[in-house]
Structures are given as C-alpha cells and as structure tokens.
Amino acid sequence: MRYTSTLLILISFLPACANQQVSYKRDITPILDKRCNGCHIAPQGYGYLVTGLEMDSYDSLMQGTIYGPVILAGDSRRSIFNKLTEGRAGKMQQKLHGEEAISNEEIEALKIWVDQGALNN
Ligand code: HEC
Asked: Comparing C-alpha atoms, which of 81, 89, 88 is closest to residue 35?
C-alpha cells in the first residue's frame, strides 16, 4: 500500500518536471552572463572578435555569427550553440569551449530552452 502510493506520487510528479517551461530571462541570461559573455561581448571579447557572436541580448544571440544563426529553434541536436556547450562539436570547432566550468544543469537548461523553441520569454 505504502509502496503503491509512493509510486503514484512519483508518476504524477515526473511529467511536471519534464514539462517545466524554461525562461530566457530567468534561466538563460544568468548562464550566458556567467559562462559566455566574458568572451562573446563587443567590442573586445575574443569570441566576439573572431565570430561576431554577441550574447548580451536575445536579438544578437538569435542573429548568431557573421556566418549565420547558431540556434535552430526547437532542435538542440543540430544547433552549434548546444553542440559546443555539450562538447559534441568537432575538434576544430570545439577549441576553447569545454574548458569553461559550465555545469550539467546549465547545459541541460540551454538544451531544454532551445528544444522548447528558444523563446524570448
Ligand atoms: C574563452 C572565451 C570563450 C568563452 C568563455 C566562450 N566562447 Fe564561444 N567562441 C570563442 C571563440 C574564440 C570562438 C571562435 C572560435 C571557436 O569556435 O573556438 C567562439 C565561437 C562560438 C560559437 C560559434 C561557433 C561556430 O563554429 O559557428 C558559438 C555558438 C559559441 N562560441 C558559443 C558559446 C557559448 C554558448 C558559450 C558559453 C557557454 C561560449 N561560447 C563561451 C570564445 C569563447
């Protein structure tokens, strides 16, 4: 009986976790500030100088690099933004990324946010 009710509570709780809406303003900007903007900031950040990618506003992040977008809304698998943070990019692209101490929770939040459509929410 006790086991059954514990199980029921767990089952009803799981979808709530999976469906949690990630917020760009609340969840994503602090991660970008902490882990990325040291380099991806105009005019002198190293990552900005090399790629033109600025992440201090939603619009500049979605605009991407001088070559184009780095986020495919709804598709973290194919987004270079997520490939780099997850360490899935090729050696040549990965370079500095992966040396920074980004946590698994932060990596996961960036992934869920992109998969939920990379909204300005
Ligand atoms: C130590 C400086 C530094 C930090 C910190 C940094 N970047 Fe970069 N980033 C670069 C440089 C330099 C490049 C261009 C060369 C390369 O890909 O390594 C770049 C390129 C990129 C690109 C474009 C890659 C491509 O091939 O189009 C993306 C996307 C990116 N960074 C995302 C991020 C994200 C997300 C973070 C934070 C989690 C971050 N970067 C943190 C320096 C940095």
From this structure: 81
Pocket test for ligand 1, best of 34, 37, 84 (most atoms within 8 A of CB): 84
Contact 71, 114 (CB under 8 A): yes
100 lines ligand 1 (CB under 6 A): yes
Distance (Å, rounded) from C-alpha 47 to C-alpha 57?
15
pLDDT digits (tens, 9 = 90+) for 2-46: 666 666 665 555 555 556 899 999 999 999 999 999 999 999 999
31 CA from centroid of ligand 1 (Å): 14
28 contacts 110 by C-beta, under 8 angstroms:
yes
